[in-house]
């Protein structure tokens, strides 16, 4: 089972993604998290990527594409949920070519639809749990509000990602996401156009519903 998930930063992509991941026991391959791991480990790749990430820009394709394709190749037998990649039409095409070449089938492509201004407010409210980055905490969303200044799931310490508090960086990231010509939405639509012919299902989720509503709809679609 192989799944691509698209959604602007702030759309609940991580939350919905982990649902699909658990249901099918998939490897969660998240390009942003791979970069953060490299940065944390002080690798050469991490050092190169950091300058772009801090500015809210895409890390260049010659670093990103081989890194992600390599992780995909080495993923578990159950398949993967790919999150944060592809983020441009070029990445979409390269991924498609690599999948075709290796005879890897896509099963679902999920797109979370959310207006840009709503996504921005959600990002600025997002908090990161030190114990588990998948624990959802957001000071701007009542259903997942932190417990005081602690993680609502485990009581762990919370921090805000520096790039989540930088409006300029958020706008830059959304400029890339909402770009339907060469950006991330162009990548999503590239797959939308292929869905029927290639035999995978393209699922559109309304990101403005409650987390539970979106989850239920997603479960009903993942047959
Ligand atoms: P994220 O955690 O998905 O918000 O990613 C954090 C940052 O990592 C992004 O703002 C980019 O700088 C970089 N990044 C993640 N995925 C990609 C990608 N597919 N292509 C280029 N840069 C990426």
Automatic annotation (TrEMBL):
<feature type="binding site">
    <location>
        <position position="91"/>
    </location>
    <ligand>
        <name>AMP</name>
    </ligand>
</feature>
<dbReference type="InterPro" id="IPR033690">
    <property type="entry name" value="Adenylat_kinase_CS"/>
</dbReference>
<comment type="similarity">
    <text>Belongs to the adenylate kinase family.</text>
</comment>
<feature type="binding site">
    <location>
        <begin position="57"/>
        <end position="59"/>
    </location>
    <ligand>
        <name>AMP</name>
    </ligand>
</feature>
<keyword id="KW-0547">Nucleotide-binding</keyword>
<comment type="pathway">
    <text>Purine metabolism; AMP biosynthesis via salvage pathway; AMP from ADP: step 1/1.</text>
</comment>
<dbReference type="GO" id="GO:0005737">
    <property type="term" value="C:cytoplasm"/>
</dbReference>
<feature type="binding site">
    <location>
        <begin position="10"/>
        <end position="15"/>
    </location>
    <ligand>
        <name>ATP</name>
    </ligand>
</feature>
<comment type="function">
    <text>Catalyzes the reversible transfer of the terminal phosphate group between ATP and AMP. Plays an important role in cellular energy homeostasis and in adenine nucleotide metabolism.</text>
</comment>
<dbReference type="InterPro" id="IPR000850">
    <property type="entry name" value="Adenylat/UMP-CMP_kin"/>
</dbReference>
<dbReference type="GO" id="GO:0005524">
    <property type="term" value="F:ATP binding"/>
</dbReference>
<feature type="binding site">
    <location>
        <position position="173"/>
    </location>
    <ligand>
        <name>AMP</name>
    </ligand>
</feature>
<keyword id="KW-0418">Kinase</keyword>
<feature type="binding site">
    <location>
        <position position="31"/>
    </location>
    <ligand>
        <name>AMP</name>
    </ligand>
</feature>
<keyword id="KW-0067">ATP-binding</keyword>
<feature type="binding site">
    <location>
        <position position="161"/>
    </location>
    <ligand>
        <name>AMP</name>
    </ligand>
</feature>
<keyword id="KW-0963">Cytoplasm</keyword>
<feature type="binding site">
    <location>
        <position position="36"/>
    </location>
    <ligand>
        <name>AMP</name>
    </ligand>
</feature>
<feature type="binding site">
    <location>
        <position position="209"/>
    </location>
    <ligand>
        <name>ATP</name>
    </ligand>
</feature>
<dbReference type="Pfam" id="PF00406">
    <property type="entry name" value="ADK"/>
</dbReference>
<comment type="subunit">
    <text>Monomer.</text>
</comment>
<keyword id="KW-0808">Transferase</keyword>
<dbReference type="GO" id="GO:0004017">
    <property type="term" value="F:AMP kinase activity"/>
</dbReference>
<protein>
    <recommendedName>
        <fullName>Adenylate kinase</fullName>
        <ecNumber>2.7.4.3</ecNumber>
    </recommendedName>
</protein>
<keyword id="KW-0545">Nucleotide biosynthesis</keyword>
<dbReference type="GO" id="GO:0044209">
    <property type="term" value="P:AMP salvage"/>
</dbReference>
<dbReference type="InterPro" id="IPR027417">
    <property type="entry name" value="P-loop_NTPase"/>
</dbReference>
<feature type="region of interest" description="NMP">
    <location>
        <begin position="30"/>
        <end position="59"/>
    </location>
</feature>
<feature type="binding site">
    <location>
        <position position="126"/>
    </location>
    <ligand>
        <name>ATP</name>
    </ligand>
</feature>
<feature type="binding site">
    <location>
        <begin position="84"/>
        <end position="87"/>
    </location>
    <ligand>
        <name>AMP</name>
    </ligand>
</feature>
